[in-house]
Amino acid sequence: MRILCLASVFGLLGSAVSQPASADAYFSTELPVAKAGLLANIGPSGAKSSGAKSGIVIASPNTVNPNYLFTWVRDSSLVFKVITDQFTLGQDTSLRSQIDNFFTAEAALQQVSNPSGLVTTGGLAEPKFNIDGTAFTGPWGRPQRDGPALRSTALITYANWLLSNGNSTFVTNTLWPVIKLDLDYVSTYWNQSTFDLWEEINSSSFFTTAVQHRALREGSALATRIGQTASVGTYDSQAANILCFLQTYWNPTTGYITANTGGGRSGKDSNTVLASIHTWDINAGCDATTFQPCSDKALSNLKVYVDSFRSVYPINSGINAASAVAVGRYPEDVYFNGNPWYLSTFAVAEQLYDGLLTWQSVGSIQVTTTSLAFFRQFSPSIATGTYTSTSPQYTQLTSAIKTFADGFVEIAAKYTPSNGGIAEQYDKSTGAPLSAADLTWSYASVLTAGASRAGIKPASWGASGLTAPAKCVPNPGPQVSVTFNVQATTQFGENIFVVGSVDVLQNWSPDTALPLSATNYPTWSLTVNLPANTNIQYKYIRKFNGQVTWESDPNNSFNTPATGGFTLNDSWR
Ligand SMILES: *[C@@H]1O[C@H](CO)[C@@H](O)[C@H](O)[C@H]1NC(C)=O
Ligand SMILES: *[C@@H]1O[C@H](CO)[C@@H](O)[C@H](O)[C@H]1NC(C)=O
Ligand SMILES: *[C@@H]1O[C@H](CO)[C@@H](O)[C@H](O)[C@H]1NC(C)=O
Ligand SMILES: *[C@@H]1O[C@H](CO)[C@@H](O)[C@H](O)[C@H]1NC(C)=O
Ligand SMILES: *[C@@H]1O[C@H](CO)[C@@H](O)[C@H](O)[C@H]1NC(C)=O
């Protein structure tokens, strides 16, 4: 039996209490420990975050093997979503100044010049900063494009509460400009490659895409609510494009969501479970377009993901195939030799608790061919169909799924040390805590799983009734306006065109070259949008009577700026 001595850790309780293994008992003792552990990691006055600026969330107080004494935009935003939910749902009204501090800290971080750029040139996707709010300049997996999306989601939750409580001035004048920077970033850059949430793979990542989609939907709704409608059309059209892209991660043959589009792994990844819980919207029911927790796709994916760990962790051996097991980030993980993670384990429980609440709200469970294997774990003879809440099948399935979900909590409980502190990982052979101690995100994961188990539903974000467009439209990313001016004397019937090294310049194809106009003859001109921050090679060509004449070598070359416009003043060569 482990002994939980809160008094020595956070001074909350006066006496030592035992920590039994049931999910009920675990949450009743662990939730206050997790809350205190999370607050201890927030500056300026957190007990374990000495040196952190006001509102800055440290990832962990651990400074060696690994050194996590930094602030990540992703982790901080997920942590502040928990805090903001607790505040806005009226569970803890003391948290407002924390949220105000977070807002002030993040608004300052947005403006810090960093290796990803300036606020206007891509700097918003910088993944982590020093805890005094200065840039971290060492090598890192950057950019990470989930940060701005998650930060805006946390702040939008707060903004909506303020609006409902008569404080629209602060929202419009102070919060909105900061939220808008993040939303504009997402809207422009969502279709550029990104490092995933584990900071390892540079491609596209399901979690990133899912949270980007959510941010633009609720950002559009907020903008409309406060009458800042200039960007609403852009947010809506990009959200639709993202939702279209989101569908492409689903692999119908294998029945799971491929977490990243690159990296050479199976793609079975906690990334997908985290995406489902962080985009849960009970009003969307079990909608599979947004991969809601009880959607057939998310459930099928959950089974494949969980099962992928049954044979890779020694602590899972001997556990029967329909029971909870320890789970980690992805089965091929080698970080610290590859172990289960607490936040991944709580996330599985949370997806199922979210699902249980949603089935209750919908009034039925639907079993489809996609989710059949998931449900057969709990009822081997269940058939596809809809089981209303009054049916024996509904009662049996929901009860077994609750037990299964609690099983994941009980595994985390079993490997939680006596002081209730939660690290990043637990050893795959011994279950002992590993890697960073007191990981703030781990504590957040306890709180969100516990809240869902207790029936708490975060505010809707507009996932209900969405359909993905049939055809995906890519987004070219940040563009700048470039004017080509070339002095060229021509004979009647002869025209000047430009071709070059990027799509817009037709990838050097003379057949589809872009025509310039001679309104200021002999200057021929054309203005086009080209990718920002890019080296462009180009040449002018003449076309006369079907004959193409190229400029002489070498190719012309220039770098587009990060923002604004650029004018080229050339002479035909
Ligand atoms: C609006 O909210 C902000 C942030 O908490 C606060 O500083 C301000 O005093 C509030 N204004 C009113 C009128 O309540
Ligand atoms: C960009 O979007 C297109 C269309 O949805 C998709 O095929 C492509 O993989 C995306 N690329 C990135 C890096 O997001
Ligand atoms: C990430 O991948 C993209 C597309 O393959 C590539 O252009 C970019 O240079 C890569 N970024 C880094 C930091 O490796
Ligand atoms: C100009 O660019 C084209 C396309 O990349 C290339 O084939 C050609 O060799 C280049 N010309 C010179 C002189 O480098
Ligand atoms: C071309 O001319 C315009 C107008 O005089 C000037 O602003 C611009 O800087 C010139 N471009 C280059 C590349 O020199």
From TrEMBL:
Catalytic reaction equation(s): Hydrolysis of terminal (1->4)-linked alpha-D-glucose residues successively from non-reducing ends of the chains with release of beta-D-glucose
Residues annotated to bind substrate: 140
SMART domains per UniProt: CBM_2
Keywords annotated in UniProt: Carbohydrate metabolism, Glycoprotein, Glycosidase, Hydrolase, Polysaccharide degradation, Signal
Residues annotated as domain CBM20: 474-573
Molecular function in Gene Ontology: glucan 1,4-alpha-glucosidase activity; starch binding
Enzyme type, top EC level: hydrolase
Biological process according to GO: polysaccharide catabolic process
EC numbers on record: 3.2.1.3
Entry GO CC: fungal-type vacuole
Signal sequence region: 1-18
Active-site positions on this chain: 196, 199
Gene3D superfamilies named in the record: 1.50.10.10, Immunoglobulins
Any matching Pfam family: Glyco_hydro_15
Similarity comment: Belongs to the glycosyl hydrolase 15 family.
Protein name, entry field: Glucoamylase
Organism field: Lactarius akahatsu
